[in-house]
Amino acid sequence: MGIAKADPRPRAIQASLKQQGTQTQIASIYGIHLRTFQRWLFRYQQTGVAAPLARGHRPAVYEGAALVRLDKLVPRHPDATLAELRALTSAKGSIMAVHRALNRLGYRYKKNAAGQRARARGGPRAAPTMAAGTAATGGQATGVYC
Whole-prediction pTM value? Predict the structure, then answer.
């Protein structure tokens, strides 16, 4: 099937309103599934709008001034957790929003500054210990953004 030059939705709806065939025939003529055409027609009858709904994503939490502020905070707090950075910026978003913003800024997270593993591969898990820098984060291990 080729690409349509114009959206078939308004033309198919008009054909139905002019009773130029059954719903099945009109759907077949315009190359769409019957149920799709029925949804289009129902929406047109309810709202009077034949155009498709707007699609897209919600705006990013960190854009513009908020992104610049986050960029200035990271060098001053390189070992801050995502939750701490979110609190410092007073943004209303998830920690994943902070993570995505840091990725857009080019920052990468290192789990520890020495680049060593927390435990030996395949070895037994050691009991968690509180390191000097973890008291402020509620016992969570901290890393460095660089």
Answer: 0.48
